[in-house]
Amino acid sequence: MTDPIEAAKALPAAKNEPAEDRLGDGGQKALAAERTARRDAERQLRESQDRVRELEGAETRRDVASAKGLTPSQANRLVGATREELEADADDLLSAFAPPQTAGGMRKSPTEKLLPGAAPSAETFDAGAVADRILTR
């Protein structure tokens, strides 16, 4: 039998040893597997959180673009981390590409400029004469 006093003296020494040293081979393998699983789970959590932030940002960008009347192509160019920044950027984009205003504040509609010769000519077209000229060459 072991002496209880000797066993008690040996106990504090075991407490000072690292946990890995007190585990057997199977315990060390289980601990390593658990640590790997935890790292993988934490990485997946970070990736999921990043994806959620990305999707929330895209939704906000789409909402701002729709409210401001931007096209999907213009919406992709919006830059900002908050709704207010996106709205300010949308306003800047709209003002940069707004059509020029006239002195009265109204835009002028474009007018057609027709050139002479747009009406059919008085000559008649003779397809037979054209065919004969082509064949005689």
List keywords for this structure.
65% helix; 6 helices; 137 residues
Which helices and strands appear, and what pairs or packs with what?
Elements: H1 4-16, H2 19-22, H3 25-68, H4 72-75, H5 83-96, H6 127-136
What does this structure look like?
With 137 residues, this protein is mainly alpha-helical. The chain has a domain at 19-98. 65% of the residues lie in helices and 0% in strands. The chain is built from six helices and no strands. The chain has helices at residues 4-16, 19-22, 25-68, 72-75, 83-96, 127-136. The radius of gyration is 41 Å and the shape is elongated. The model has no long low-confidence stretch (mean pLDDT 80).
Order of helices and strands: HHHHHH
Shape call: elongated
The radius of gyration over CA amounts to 41 Å
Helix content: 55-70%
Strand content: under 5%
User: How much is the average pLDDT?
Assistant: 80
Total strand count, please? Answer: 0
DSSP helix count?
6
Distance between the termini: 129 Å
Given as residue ranges, the uncertain stretches (5+ residues, pLDDT < 50) are none
Q: Mind summarizing the main beta sheet?
A: none
- The helix/strand class is mainly alpha
Task: Describe the structure concisely for a colleague.
By secondary structure, this protein is an all-alpha fold. It has helices at residues 4-16, 19-22, 25-68, 72-75, 83-96, 127-136. The model has no long low-confidence stretch (mean pLDDT 80).
